[in-house]
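Me: I hope this is not a bother. Any chance you could explain this protein sequence and its structure tokens? It all follows right here:
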Amino acid sequence: EACTCLALFMVLLLVVALFVLRPATAEGPELESPSLRRLQSKVAIAARALKRAPGATATLKILRDVSVWRPREGIDIASLGWALKECSELDVGWYQHLAGAGPRRHVLLRVAGELGGRTAERLCRPPYGPDCVAQLGSRAMEQLRRARAHLAAGRLWNALHRKGLDFAPPWVHPWQTPARFIIGLRSQPAWSLSDLRGESSSAAARIAEALEANFPKILEDLRRIRTRRWTTSYGPELIRQPRNWTKLLLYDGDLQNTPPPPNLPSREFYKPRQLHDGLCRTYAQNTCEILRGLLPGLRYPELSYLQPDHEQVAFFRLAPGSRIQFHHASQNARLTLHLCLIGCGGQSRIQVGDQVLRWRQGRVLAFDDSFLHRVHIDPRRDRWILHVMTLHPGIDTPEKLAQAFTQGRLWPPA
């Protein structure tokens, strides 16, 4: 009964919030914009209250104040510094202190997303401009999606793209909002094998074909891998019970000076641009041999990455019933390929942008992980995949990447 009452309460809260947060129109007076000091006080009070209880009144007030906050345009260092700090603290608080309280987590995320979005729209001016919009706008979109505030995310998207806004992001899809963006790359949530083959000399197409052709050999590797327990993949910012998401990491791009998982015969550290020799030899010899000559970062060591783990190879396990929050890559310069090995059917699914995709055993599911995406796993079985991140077909050779850079297509500019 308590859960039902809480659910009804949250529905009522969101309905009232939508009414309170509706944009001002010509027929209705605009609410007075609170001062920075008053807003700081209200955010602090509301954040403390939300850690104890859902706090409908405090929540509605702080959401209203954030949504109508209009700081002085231009360089307002005090407002920008405070907003960045408060966004960060709210962001950390929602998963560190409220691991078991879903509705309250959504409220904190909604406040953080609204505050970050308002700051990106109003305060990101020279000399911070593009980098400020990139970091704050990208994070705010992710927070609002996680809070299930999709209408608010749509409003923020429109606000950041409105005519005349300085440093408007070059994002082309409201679900694809990474902090770094190469203009002109093909953007779509899901990629079929024919899509991959349609790109000129696509490394991703060759990798997908090789994975499907060698599915039985990769399954042999999985049998060895499943004989032991592996380390967690990510923390509570993405999954409520991190131990339900484990991985064997074979390659992580430019990762260096990082030890392998504990209790292994080989204590060899990871080396940049190399598959982990000890783990490949002991657990995944077939998989490593298949991919060694196909990953662009291994074929072309001089090929620059936009982030240290730009390319990655790992076996991932998700426990029955697991759910992964919305998240996305920090750039749009790679594709992710999943070869599903075990637990591929049933209710298991991945939402990429506004599309819902399902795994099929022995088949590659390819998607662009710069689109916000989340995962639901069937409650009756584990799901195992071989997870390969590789460079986007538009920049998977040194020549293609150099052309993108020389044409000034990287945003924000380096």
Notes: Residues 1-33 have pLDDT under 50 and may be disordered. The chain has 14 helices and 13 strands. The CA atoms of residues 22 and 164 lie 23 Å apart.
